[in-house]
User: What shape does this take?
Amino acid sequence: MYDFNLRVLLPYWPAFCKGALLTLEISALALVISLPCGLLISLMRVSRSRLLRALGTVYVETVRNVPLLVVLYVLCYALPVYGVPLSVFAAGVLGLSINSAAFTTEIFRGGFAAIPGGQEEAARALGLGRAQLLALVVLPQVFRVVLPTLGNQVVSVVLGSAQASIIGVAELTYQTQSIGSATFRYFELFTMAALFYIVCVQAIGGIWRLLTGRAAKAPLGT
Assistant: This one.
């Protein structure tokens, strides 16, 4: 019968914790990059310019139909061949950012679509320009609409960061596999890794509920 024993992992605890912290670091950096980029590309997709709409659509449809793992391979192994060397850490962050930005774009685009069209006419009747309309009227309501869904995207980025282990980013999954190859205690290790991800997801959910409050339920236009 298998002897489940976490004590044998104590000498490897610092490496495990280092991997967990790196997971949070690359996830946070990817979100800091992808959320503004997603908003910008969503503005392109709802723009009056056909060129901007086409560029935004090409980006979203391309990235959403390419697995994250392929994006990571291209950044880590293909770009250096053409003189664009990236560290595995930079490739991991950039790959997660590129992938997340495409999905974030669609989240924001859905928020723009939820804003009643009559508000633009009302704002213009009050003498507001397009930039003022966007900043003072539209964007606050868009964020209120998309906040719950953005929380799901944050979770997706954190969980998706595990794929960065494939290119050698020493995050939690990489450390788990590395320690496992030395101890053969895969069951204990992956149990601990699973618990870490569960705690992270639950923490994100709790924090997001505090951030959103009742904002998402408030009627638009108020």
Remarks:
- Residues 13-45 form the longest helix (33 residues).
- The chain has a mean pLDDT of 90.
- The two ends are 63 Å apart (CA to CA).
